[in-house]
Amino acid sequence: MQLTHEENQFERKTFPITLVCDHIYFQQNIGSLFRISEAFGVENIIFLGKDIPLTPRKINKTSRSTHLHVPHTVIEETTELVDYLLQNNFEIIALEIASNSKPLKEVVIPDNQKIALLIGSEIDGISDELLKISNQIVHINMFGKNSSMNVVQAASIALYEITSI
To answer: Tens place of pLDDT for every residue, the chain, 165 residues?
Structure first.
């Protein structure tokens, strides 16, 4: 028998993970990122870019009101984000296919350190400026002809892996 939301046995938990969204503008993706972040106990979401469409009416359909429960901020300039991440001693993990990326299963999560999981824009991925400051660059092994995945699906897989360690 399927359980209701109130009957589920899951432990409520928050992880020291900040999801950093590098110029993500599609409203369906933004809403879904709130929803998956709430499900995986993400502490905070940072949206990088100008004019991020955070209109509740537009994102609520996919967020299912989770945008009301997950703390989030917008940082407009990449340099400001870089300063914030470095000054606050995050373990910066970029989710990107790159010449020096390793499979997600090989990610190393340091004890007692905040994680910044970087995910890239729907068009351009993660900027070189952010890849340069990343402590680890990881990719999801894929076995089809396509070499990319929807940003929400990729974030979901990465959050599952990171929170399971």
So the answer is: 888 767 777 788 899 999 999 999 999 999 999 999 999 999 999 999 999 999 888 898 899 989 999 999 999 999 999 999 999 999 999 999 999 999 999 999 999 999 999 999 999 999 999 999 999 999 999 999 988 899 999 999 999 999 998
**CA distances from residue 69 to 24, 55, 118, 131, 154 in whole angstroms, order as listed:** 20, 15, 21, 29, 22
Domain total in the chain = 1
User: Is 5 contained in some domain?
Assistant: no
Domain membership of residue 139 (yes or no) is yes
**Scanning the structure block, which residue is given the tokens 């046995």?**
9
Looking up residue 131, the CATH number of its domain turns out to be 3.40.1280.10
Helix (H) or strand (E) holding 136: strand 136-139
Give Cβ neighbours of residue 38 (< 8 Å, ≥ 6 apart). 66, 69, 70
Q: Is residue 27 part of a domain?
A: yes
Residue 122 to residues 39, 87, 132: CA-CA distances in angstroms? Answer: 22, 28, 20
Q: Other CB atoms closer than 10 Å to residue 100's CB: what's the count?
A: 9
Residues paired with 17 in a beta bridge: 115
Find out whether 162 and 109 touch, Cβ atoms under 8 Å. Answer: yes
